[in-house]
Amino acid sequence: MTDPSRRDRRRPLELLGLSAIIAIVIGIIVWGGARNIETALIWAGISFIVVIVVVAMLVLATFRDTDAEGNSRRDDEGDGSPH
To answer: In angstroms, rounded to a whole number, what is the distance separating the alpha carbons of residues 48 and 56?
Structure first.
């Protein structure tokens, strides 16, 4: 089994950072409009969770599994056997 690359190890941090940045921006926008810190924090938290879920779903949708030789394989690619 090969060790994951540095990029693969940092990917979760990239996704969390992206979600945090978007949540902060939405929190600032809501605070600017409502001038209520509690409402801004609620909206920032909700947006953080929503962005995490959406980005995770997109990553899973584009993820390609590889075998030991590095060949790409997907579930929808047939292995020659009838279903």
So the answer is: 12
Three-state SS for 49?
A: helix
pLDDT tens sequence across 43-76: 999 999 999 999 999 988 987 766 666 666 655 5
pTM: 0.72
Coil vs helix vs strand at 28? helix
Judge whether 55 and 18 are in contact, CB under 8 Å. Answer: yes
DSSP H helices, 1-83, are 6-34, 37-62
Which residue, 46, 39, 53, is CA-closest to 23? 46
> What's the rounded Cα separation, in Å, for the pair 51 and 17?
11
